[in-house]
Amino acid sequence: MTILLMVILFVLLIFPHELGHFIVARLCDVQVNEFSFGMGPVLFKKQGKETQYSIRAIPVGGFCAMEGEDTEEAGDNPRAFNNKKWWQKILILLAGAAMNILIAFIVMIFVSAIGGIITNRLAAVSPGGPAELAGIRAGDTVIAVEDMETDTWSDVVNALDIATKKDGPVSVTVKRGSEEITFQMAPMVNEEGRRIVGIEAEISHRPGTAIKSAAIATGEMFTAIFKSLRDLIHSENVLEQVSGPVGIAQAVGETSSYGAMYYLYLVAMISVNLAIFNLLPFPALDGGRIIFVIIRAITGKAISDKAEGIVHMIGMAVLIGLAIIVTGSDILKLFK
After folding, report:
1. Is pLDDT of 72 > 70?
2. Could you tell me what percent of the chain has a pLDDT over 90?
3. What is the b/e burial string over 209-235, where b = at least 16 CB atoms within 10 angstroms of the residue's CB?
4. How far apart are CA 275 and CA 22, in angstroms?
5. Is the pTM of this model over 0.85?
């Protein structure tokens, strides 16, 4: 099952990345010689009007082979990648990461819609509780507690936790239809000794709520990954903080044992991670290629196709070497 989920993971991460390059390349009228699903030996191929479409033996990604992308063979072909305008090249290079972000967003919409989102709209009010006695009803949306605004249920819980620790009544403002009403209530002490007001959140499966939640979750993933990158720079043991395919496989096995939603969240997180990684300004990565496009747009032919190709080749060798080291470290972790 872990192997199957790993294959699905790579298909969802790498293939859409290359599909993004392919779609924008076609929109920019770049000649695409081959677009492949999978890697390794060819199992099936079909020659289109211009592009060869192929399915390969190892279903862990794909590639988009554009004319004149990595060689000096572009010549005078106006449809070669290297002969396109600088902004078209950047759009094509950005498209892969954009697709990874889109995949993460779509996955999180699915997770939010199926699992449901806890909102600050009330599903129920405890009979005889402080909230009901004050006049609050099911269907009201809590927008403030005391002077603290509450956009989410988490905000409501945190604000009430602070407000109920003080003596005296608690002020809660709700939105009822188009009207905003403020109520004063005296919290009651429950069997556990906690001061409560007696309200229950609504769990929403509405598409609009799911889309909003997915956008917030995807943004939070960006923040978490950038924080991890910052911590990685200052880390004394980098290998303990990073993972390769073996480490990812272990994470897939662990998260899938908790349920499908945990696995899908991992897919979204890794997809955002891949987008950010590919945009790093390092040779051979999309980010490194974008840097060269900008430099060459400013300096003209100061850097030749051959020189850029050598730099990217060296960058790829370094990345392969790092991948081997990280994989070795992942294997060693398994025995600890």
Report:
1. no
2. 54
3. bbebbbeebbeebeeebeeeeeeeeee
4. 16
5. no
Check: CB of residue 84 under 8 Å from CB of residue 28: yes
245-271 core/surface letters (b: 16 or more CB in 10 A; e: else):
ebbbbebbeebbeeeeeebbbbbbbbb
Tell me how far apart the alpha carbons of residues 40 and 29 are, in angstroms, rounded to a whole number: 27
Q: Residue 106: count other Cβ atoms within 10 Å of its Cβ.
A: 16
Kindly report the number of other CB atoms within 10 A of residue 200's CB atom.
Answer: 12
Beta carbons within 8 Å of 220's beta carbon, 6+ residues apart:
none
Contact 38, 64 (CB under 8 A): no
Report residue 108 as tokens: 């999180």
Q: Using the structure block, give the residue that is written with the tokens 């554009």.
A: 66
Residues assigned a catalytic role: 18
Q: How far is CA 78 from CA 20, 21, 55, 108, in A?
A: 21, 18, 29, 40
Which of 303, 315, 289 is closest to 86 using CA atoms? 289
- Angle at the Cα of 113 (from 109 to 119), degrees rounded to 5? 105
Judge contact between 268 and 100, C-beta under 8 A.
no
Q: Are 96 and 20 in contact (CB under 8 A)?
A: yes
Q: Judge contact between 10 and 39, C-beta under 8 A.
A: no
The average pLDDT across 36-50 equals: 91
